[in-house]
Amino acid sequence: MKLLGRLPSINVRKVLWTAAQLGLDLEREDWGPGFRSPKEPEYLALNPNGLIPVLIDGDFVLWESNTICRYLASKCNATTLLPTEARARAKVEQWMDWQAGELNNSWRVPFMALLRGVPATPEAIEAGVANWNRHMGILDAQLARTGAYVTGDDFTLADVVLGLSAQRWKNAPIARTELPAVEAWVQRLSTRPGFAEFVGNGMA
């Protein structure tokens, strides 16, 4: 299997961290800023959105990073990472969808302004930081309830995708709310295979 996308991308790294949990060694090809453009016709033929990453598994092509993570877990029959029982799986996917939609949208303005240089007003940045912290507080409350991982006692794909998001929050040059459950959870995550390489590597 081959993964198209550059390593600094958080969406590429969530797939690579999933692969590390599964013992998979994905071949990776650099695409994105600083490398080949995903707007090239060759890439758009694989993903019409022109975004990274893309997974190529033989003649099967897949895009959307959280979907790729689910595919890899299903392909490897990793039922702890992605349960087969309907309610347990729905809980994992609920938090994965929350990460991709609600949490990602909360940090977009301050992250893009402070780390990517996209112009924004101080007021917009301040409001974005407050919204980012509020969403991380939702995660903290969930972790305080479970006392372990996002959906309970087991490490799942919800922890993979949210672990990358939490590390981005921790690395961002912003004023952060004290979130003890998140801090303890990230410490637990740091013992997992691939964490140092794909999560705790200083990349935002």
Automatic annotation (TrEMBL):
Residues 1-80 form the GST N-terminal domain. PROSITE patterns: GST_CTER (PS50405), GST_NTER (PS50404). It comes from the Bacteria. Residues 85-204 form the GST C-terminal domain. CDD domains: GST_N_2 (cd03047). SUPFAM superfamilies: GST C-terminal domain-like (SSF47616), Thioredoxin-like (SSF52833). PANTHER family: DISULFIDE-BOND OXIDOREDUCTASE YFCG, GLUTATHIONE S-TRANSFERASE-RELATED. This is Glutathione S-transferase family protein. It comes from Pelomonas parva.
